[in-house]
Write a structure and sequence with these properties.
The protein is of the alpha/beta class. The protein has a single domain, classed as HUPs (Rossmann fold, 3-Layer(aba) Sandwich), CATH 3.40.50.620. It has helices at about 10-25, 40-50, 95-110, 135-145, 150, 170-180, 200-210, 215-220; strands at about 5, 25-35, 55-60, 115-120, 160. Strand 1 (about 5), helix 1 and strand 2 (about 25-35) form a beta-alpha-beta unit. The N and C termini lie far apart (about 35 Å).
Length: about 220
């Protein structure tokens, strides 16, 4: 059976991408990162989702001691209720996060003999992070072709970003068809008992569910 590494954060997009990979016949291996984020709720949910989907998962703990993001530094305030402008990079941007995550994923994939890495990045309804844009993934794919054993042998690990150009509503409709357990997902940048409803991630999530005409089970419960 063909194998794929799936970057699983515990959020809406990554849960959808896991189920998409499974629907395409891949045996999935989820990679969950503890990188010093402000709360562990998304990590715990990611592990629950992987187990629910009967997918193997690996938790990788790394340190980014230099900070540089309000997701890493609790002394910095998470922006709320802002007018999201894709030309502005918010304080929740973590320097080079997708580069770091994809590097671990590509290494894991090559070690497994997997041919693919799935990431739920989105460049439509997103906060403006530069490492969520199509040109970034095109460039990174080229790096894998030139910098890895499988790449120079002509069998480079393929980075799949099927949600990249879809709206949150489109993503949710796909997930509903695939029976993604959205009630288990956690998108909020804060780690409270319930989503704050004010951070970029909460706002974009609610906008998506409203546009899709679907009740967000994570809020309803």
């Amino acid at each position: 059976m063909k194998k794929a590494v799936v970057l699983l954060s515990g959020g809406l997009d990554s849960a959808t991408i896991l189920y998409l990979a499974k629907s395409k016949g891949y045996k999935t291996y989820c990679l969950v990162f503890d990188y010093g984020q402000r709360h562990r709720k998304e990590i715990n949910q990611a592990k629950r989702i992987a187990e629910y989907a009967k997918s193997e998962h690996c938790l990788v703990k790394i340190a980014l001691p230099w900070g540089g993001s309000s997701l890493l530094d609790k002394s910095k305030k998470i922006p709320t209720n802002r007018n999201i402008d894709h030309k502005e990079i918010p304080s929740t941007y973590v320097p080079a996060r997708n580069i770091i995550f994809l590097s671990f994923s590509a290494s894991y994939a090559e070690a497994l003999g997997a041919e693919a890495v799935f990431i739920g990045a989105n460049a439509v309804d997103y906060s403006g992070y530069p490492d969520c844009r199509p040109e970034f993934f095109d460039s990174y794919q080229d790096s894998l072709k030139k910098g890895m054993k499988q790449g120079v042998e002509g069998k480079a690990v393929k980075i799949f970003t099927p949600l990249l150009n879809k709206t949150k509503a489109q993503i949710i409709k796909i997930g509903v068809k695939l029976k993604v357990p959205y009630h288990m997902t956690w998108s909020c940048y804060k780690g409270g008992s319930r989503p704050c409803g004010e951070c970029d991630s909460c706002v974009l999530r609610q906008k998506g569910f409203d546009a899709a005409g679907v009740v967000d089970a994570a809020i309803k419960k």
